[in-house]
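Our consortium's second objective concerns turning raw sequence data into structural hypotheses that experimental partners can test. To show how far this objective has progressed, the report includes one record in full. It was chosen at random from the queue rather than selected for favorable results. The single chain below, 114 residues long, was entered without modification.
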Amino acid sequence: MEDDAVAAQLTEQLPSDHILSFDSRMGTAQVAALPQPLDVRGDAMRSYRAGDVVYWSTEQALVIFLTDGFAVPDDGVLTRIGAVVDGMDQLVGCERDCRVHFGATSSSLGRGGG
């Protein structure tokens, strides 16, 4: 995570092992619902790159993009909060229960069922 305040908010919501389970969205992104909203401020995204970690405010979810693209909502509900540092190749092939470990400066990925 790039912002210490966002990282602290996210850490409070994570289980003790700091792992969230993500599910694929048509092979372009992995999405995980959060139990509570994050207070995230930043510029609305108009494009994304593979590995971007994004907060999706209307869905109260984290998104990890698997590809580069430009299709983002017009209402600016996506805010970049970090990037995957290692393990992106494992996440690309995973369809469901894709386990991601979050940290302040790095994320490591583990493959679930797929």
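The partners drew two points from this record. Residues 4-13 form the longest helix (10 residues). Residues 105-114 have pLDDT under 50 and may be disordered. Both points have been shared with the crystallography group to help prioritize constructs.
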